[in-house]
Specification:
Elements: H1 8-13, E1 20-28, E2 31-41, E3 52-65, E4 68-73, E5 77-80, E6 87-101
Antiparallel strand pairs: 1-2, 2-6, 3-4, 3-5, 3-6
């Protein structure tokens, strides 16, 4: 078995140019570890069957819920419970690690032009 460390800074540097990109960096049991960079407003969605974790590495994520907003800064994390409708946004952009079961779509229960069904590795 070949066990190697993962340099997250290096991985973030390999993301494509633009305001939004998501790539797989690791798997553990049945969980995907993804890196994401995002700037702007995402869409309202939920994940009916699973929780979703965002660990903010850089910048600020504003997680909107129907009744409030939560600001999540670098060095902080937020766990979105399954079935809870939410909308990520960021005026200046953020970089984060996402942890969720394998096969989870980025737009959950909503299909749109930004839906990713199968994630690429970086």
């Amino acid at each position: 078995m070949n066990v190697e460390k993962i340099n997250l800074s290096e991985k973030f540097g390999k993301l494509p140019v633009g305001d939004y990109a998501v790539r797989l960096v690791a798997k553990m049991n049945n969980y995907d570890f993804k890196i994401v960079k995002f700037k702007g407003d995402f869409i309202w969605h939920s994940h009916p069957a699973t929780d979703e974790t965002f660990i903010i590495m850089e910048g600020t994520l504003v997680m909107s819920f129907r009744d409030r907003k939560v600001e999540v800064n670098a060095g902080e994390m937020i766990v979105i419970p399954k079935g809870v409708e939410h909308k990520p946004s960021s005026e200046n952009g953020y970089k984060a690690i996402l942890i969720e079961p394998e096969g989870v779509s980025n737009t959950g229960d909503v299909k749109s032009e930004i839906t990713i069904e199968k994630f690429e590795w970086v």
